[in-house]
Amino acid sequence: MTRNVLIAGAGPGVSGSLARLYAAEGATVGLLGADQGVLATLADQVEAAGGSAETAVADLTDDVATRAVVTRMAEKLGHVDVLHFNPSAYREKDPLALSPDELLEDVRLGVGALLTFLQAARPFMGPGGRLSATGSMAADKPWFGAASLGVQKAGLQNLVRSIDAALAGDGIRAVSVTVRGMLAKEGPFAPDNVAKALRAAIDQDESDWRPEIAYEG
After folding, report:
1. Who contacts 188 (Cβ-Cβ below 8 Å, separation ≥6)?
2. Domains (ranges, CATH) in the chain?
3. CA–CA distance, 202 with 84 (Å, rounded to integer)
4. pLDDT tens, residue order, the chain (217 aa)
5. What CDD domains has UniProt attached to this entry (predicted)?
6. pTM given for the model
7. 8 Å CB contact between 198 and 212
8. Alpha-carbon gap, residue 3 to 79, rounded angstroms
């Protein structure tokens, strides 16, 4: 059976690398993102790697519109095996400059949008389904100069744990991978290597499942 993967916040970095990993196995990859040009490039890469691609431009902070997009894509695919949640908002403001509204706006994308994504896809997932999320060391070692990012990543890690506990009884598991390093073009924190760590986390043995895994590079 063809594996179907949906990626929210698809872009040229880690999420693109993960899409190509699955494509190499013949998967169909649904790509949701904000930039049509980026999505078109990723779709070409997915197909070149041996998979099939579906794309949709989506403002992930728009709950109604995103639910509709995810539902349409999942209906077309028929079933969903893997969800990957990638987006976050980077706003270079420290706690003395960051407003409550700005913080909530960023959390809506980096955490809240996961609820929309999951809830819309859930009817199309069965036992063996998996959800993953790109985490960050900012969750417990935040940089004060971009205070909202640490809040997002801490909230994401916490929410993924709750999702895993809520769905484990249905045979669906969730995991966040805490990337403990700065992404780089080369080396252990290059997107391709981080994507491999994500894939390993998604494929971990359910009998010894961990909902949060640190990638140290």
Report:
1. 181, 217
2. 4-205 (3.40.50.720)
3. 10
4. 679 999 999 999 999 999 999 999 999 999 999 999 999 999 999 999 999 999 999 999 999 999 999 999 999 999 999 999 999 999 999 999 999 999 999 999 999 999 999 999 999 999 999 999 999 999 999 999 999 999 999 999 999 999 999 999 999 999 999 999 988 888 999 999 999 999 999 999 999 999 999 999 8
5. SDR_c
6. 0.96
7. no
8. 9
Helix 147-167 × helix 113-121 angle, to 10° = 30
d(CA 107, CA 89): 8
Q: Which residues pair with 30 in a beta bridge?
A: 6, 54
Question: Cα 44–117–185 angle (5° rounding)?
Answer: 45
Distance CA 152, CA 143 (A): 12
> Which of 86, 22, 88 is CA-nearest to residue 54?
22
Tokens encoding 58: 């989506």
